[in-house]
Design a protein that fits this description.
It is built from 6 helices and 7 strands. The chain has about 180 residues and is α/β, with parallel strands linked by helices. It has one domain (about 1-175): 3-Layer(aba) Sandwich (Rossmann fold), CATH 3.40.50. The chain has a 7-stranded mixed beta sheet. The two termini are about 25 Å apart. About 40% of the residues are buried. The mean pLDDT is about 95.
């Protein structure tokens, strides 16, 4: 079995001082939300063995805060920052997941952007938590996390509609008490 965690970056400033979208940074709420999601991940094993992060400032900051929050609880995963994750569509994201076969982690996290991450989560989900599927159908919000299991032995076998949604959460859902 393989577990995939899809994490959208946390809330950001509207415009970067440089004017470049890739340079947008997390705002105060984004920093709080990333820490909250990191805390949740740190309390809910199994933990990612490998993490793939977009090169955008906001995704790198999201991962850094998530890791800082959970590092005392979990083993250090292998982390790669990949330019192809920025603005990637579901097909490109899936190709990147397939390429994880080389390192062969059991549990993989991808930190990226919408619309690709939301579309990928929807495309991969074939079964699983009904309430989570309904909530995910509307949006993968900032700091939203979709956790999917695949009954495969190799990342190259991960395919659309083959995933089972184990959990969908966001800072808002955590505040409503959907999971501790």
């Amino acid at each position: 079995m393989r577990r995939l965690l899809l994490l959208r970056h946390a809330k950001t400033e509207h415009d970067a001082p440089s004017g470049r979208d890739q340079d947008r940074r997390l705002d105060d709420r984004g920093r709080r939300d990333a820490a909250e999601i990191g805390g949740w991940i740190g309390r809910h094993p199994p933990f990612p063995d490998a993490v793939l992060v977009s090169t955008a400032v906001r995704t790198r900051q999201t991962w850094e805060i998530v890791w800082e929050t959970m590092k005392h609880l979990v083993p250090q995963p292998q982390v790669e920052v990949l330019p192809e994750l920025y603005g990637a569509d579901p097909a490109r994201l899936l190709q990147t997941i397939h390429e994880a076969s080389a390192a062969d982690p059991q549990r993989l996290m991808v930190v990226g952007h919408n619309p690709g991450m939301h579309e990928l989560a929807l495309a991969l989900t074939g079964s699983g938590d009904a309430a989570g599927r309904k909530a995910l159908a509307g949006n993968l919000p900032t700091s939203g996390l979709a956790v999917l299991n695949f009954a495969v032995d190799d990342w190259a076998d991960v395919a659309f509609r083959r995933g089972r949604l184990v959990q969908f959460l966001s800072p808002k859902l955590l505040k409503l008490g959907s999971d501790d």
